[in-house]
Give the backbone structure.
Amino acid sequence: MKILETRTAPNPRRVRIFLAEKGIEMQYEEYDLMKGALKTPEFTKLNKFQRVPVLVLDDGSAISETMAICRYFEETNPTPALMGTGAKQRATVEMWNRRMELGLMFAVASAFRHGHPAMAPLETPQVKEWAEANKPKALAIVQMLDAELADRAFIAGDSFSVADITAMCAIDFMRPARISRPEGLQHLERWYADVSARPSAKA
């Protein structure tokens, strides 16, 4: 079993943090997306969408998409639970993780992929107006999170979850996307300091 990744990309990092929280050791294989490694016939056979990460199982089958990989390990290694326990908590974690993915991470990734010159060969066409349009969307989510975190420790409640992993990786990715985090968001900064101090954040 191994995971194919580009280490500098945020989605593979989400999986590494998830596995570190569960104490699961994994073999990783590096693919340089900037050099076209995801466009080869061999990689495309594993993931036709040509994205990382990809989990290759011992039987040779492949699972792609970040949350699908995390779900596999949540099912095979249920503790600690990072996707909630019980119907209500699982639904709450899912709700907040989707908000962090579709709201924050998507906006930050769009700003990066359409705004950073190095991404021009991979993002065709690269629409700089779309990059700029997504920056205030990301900032709006960050400001909303500050208010939400005023009365709870983590994104989806009192326990660390996959929603915190997604949010932290998205916020860290704001820097290469050239989105400045607003100052004075004390609840967000408290949460960010806490999650960034976890050993898994360095995975």
Remarks:
- Residues 22 and 77 are 7 Å apart (CA to CA).
- The chain has a mean pLDDT of 97.
